[in-house]
Write a structure and sequence with these properties.
With 126 residues, the chain is of the alpha+beta class. It contains 5 helices and 3 strands.
Length: 126
Amino acid sequence: MAISRVWTDAAFRKRVVEAPRPALAELGIAIGADAAVRVVGSKGAPGDVDDPSLIQVVVEQGGGYAYFFIPSPRSPCAQQAAYGIIVARDTDDPALGRRVLRDAERALAGLAAQCEVLAAEAEAVA
């Protein structure tokens, strides 16, 4: 996954913010049609070169939600804010892309499990 595209291609970053579902699919992150998705941007630190330098993707479905981050490879502060550690400093380092993809997969799997529990609870009450 070329996560650096989010930070090196301003038009693509705009699409991630304005139409996240198809843009994220291009990065290998598939979000189901029955889930709502929104993107929130912020800075990892005031001096970051990217504005925003940290993108949070929030996915909501069936009363539950999950989120994951896409931090700028150029911002150690954004990476530290997302992961508690500095994952990579190089824009082309694939380690950051793999980390983002794993986190997205975990978030979406967790949301699916949460929705199953909520649906089962609702069915038990009905």
